[in-house]
Specification:
heterodimer; A: 179 residues; mainly alpha; 8 helices; elongated; B: 230 residues
């Protein structure tokens, strides 16, 4: 009985996806809502941090969206979905491994630059000096509080590219603010 | 305390979902890998015909005799099967979650190794001067590269239309497929059946081409995730 239910649900998802490929917004919404729980369960087994989980979940949805033309309705939906999710999660781990190896943990946070040196430009001025792409990345992540995935989706780039821009912005700001 | 706020419920996730729904335009579904493979084989056959038509490639003079030799036929079959299976595997790489790709890839590599082994069993003519060895060989290697270039471009473009999750592997398979087909065409063109000549000037371009294609794939085929929504 359970297996029958699973098969029926999978068939329903296939149907929704087929409609979504034809541009049916409601079917797409139904599909994205229906896959949310299993997708989240799948990702939770791999990612513990809730913020990372949210980023990877959003990234997976975006990857699914960009790959939706590759889905073949004559094949089951779930292997296609979870292959994408696994790929996004692995990409995320790779990114974390590369970047955390460059980060240094400190016991005390450094003192803010404050007004110690009036010659140092303040944040707004420093931001003005950044290239447009870096400033945009910084503002979306730090001032608007968007997640990496949401910010990347807004300007139509990958989360990886956005993180690179943000990283460059932080580095440039650190230099400008003398931190 | 358990985390009760799932990513589904956060405003940011909802915003992403709404954004995707706004972009839910109809998409042109990718053809099935087998149909795309059929089209690619037609492209390769057309290229081979055109290359023969312009005289870049000729049939070896002793071809009628050679096709009666089982080893030569086995060699051609191994190259053709390996090339086609690698292309099939490359097309499957463009579709996430295509479960059967592992065995096909292994069988393709197996057939490629059979061809290489048959070349290894060819006689060795040590009396060939180095200049002669290089002079005749360079031409074979060059023509293998020329014959493989267009099928490779066609294959890479076709894979890029999909969503390859392992871009370097997809690139390597595409390169292997294209240059194995080129090596097959070269075997009906080149009259030299000598071990070193075959291994250096016929097999190495295939291996090098696959490696180069893997590098191209790593850079060029990974961009499907950053493409504007289709």
């Amino acid at each position: 009985m359970d297996e029958e239910n699973l098969r029926a649900r999978s068939a329903q998802r296939t149907q929704w996806m087929e409609c979504a490929q034809r541009g049916d917004r409601e079917a797409y919404r139904a599909l994205l809502t229906d896959i949310a729980s299993p997708l989240l369960r799948f990702l939770r087994r791999r990612i513990a941090d809730p913020h990372d989980l949210e980023d990877v979940y959003q990234d997976t949805l975006m990857a699914l969206h960009r790959a939706r033309h590759t889905y073949d309705p004559s094949r089951p939906f779930e292997p296609w979905l979870f292959a994408i999710a696994r790929h996004v999660a692995v990409d995320h781990f790779r990114y974390r491994m590369v970047h955390t190896s460059h980060e240094i943990l400190v016991e005390e946070l450094p003192e803010p630059a404050g007004d110690a040196d009036p010659a140092r430009p303040r944040l707004a001025e420093a931001l003005d000096r950044l290239p447009q792409a870096q400033r945009e990345a910084f503002e979306m992540l730090q001032l608007e509080g968007l997640s990496v995935a949401a910010a990347a989706a807004r300007i139509g780039i990958t989360t990886g590219a956005l993180k690179v821009r943000a990283h460059r912005a932080y580095k440039a700001l650190r230099a400008l603010l003398g931190g | 305390m358990a985390d009760t706020t799932t990513p589904l419920q956060t405003p940011r996730t909802r915003a992403v979902v709404e954004q995707l729904l706004d972009q839910a335009a109809p998409v042109r579904r990718l053809w099935k890998p087998v149909a795309r493979l059929g089209l690619w084989v037609i492209v390769v056959a057309t290229i081979a015909g055109a290359v023969m038509g312009v005289g870049l490639m000729r049939l070896r003079p002793d071809l009628r005799l050679k096709v009666r030799e089982p080893v030569y036929l086995l060699e051609l079959t191994a190259l053709a099967v390996a090339g086609i299976l690698m292309a099939a595997s490359a097309f499957q790489e463009a579709v996430p979650g295509y479960g059967a790709r592992g065995p096909i890839r292994r069988v393709a590599i197996g057939f490629g190794l059979v061809a290489a082994l048959l070349w290894f069993l060819q006689p060795l003519h040590g009396e060939l001067a180095v200049t002669q060895f290089i002079g005749t060989g360079i031409s074979c290697a060059w023509r293998t590269v020329v014959l493989g270039a267009l099928p490779l471009c066609a294959l890479l473009i076709a894979i890029r239309r999909g969503a390859p999750l392992a871009p370097a592997r997809a690139g390597a398979l595409a390169g292997g497929a294209a240059f194995l087909m080129a090596a097959l065409l070269m075997r009906v063109d080149c009259p030299l059946d000598e071990r070193l000549h075959l291994l250096v000037w016929h097999a190495l371009p295939v291996a090098g081409g696959a490696g180069l294609s893997a590098a191209i794939g790593f850079v060029w085929l990974r961009r499907w995730r950053s493409r504007a929504p289709r």
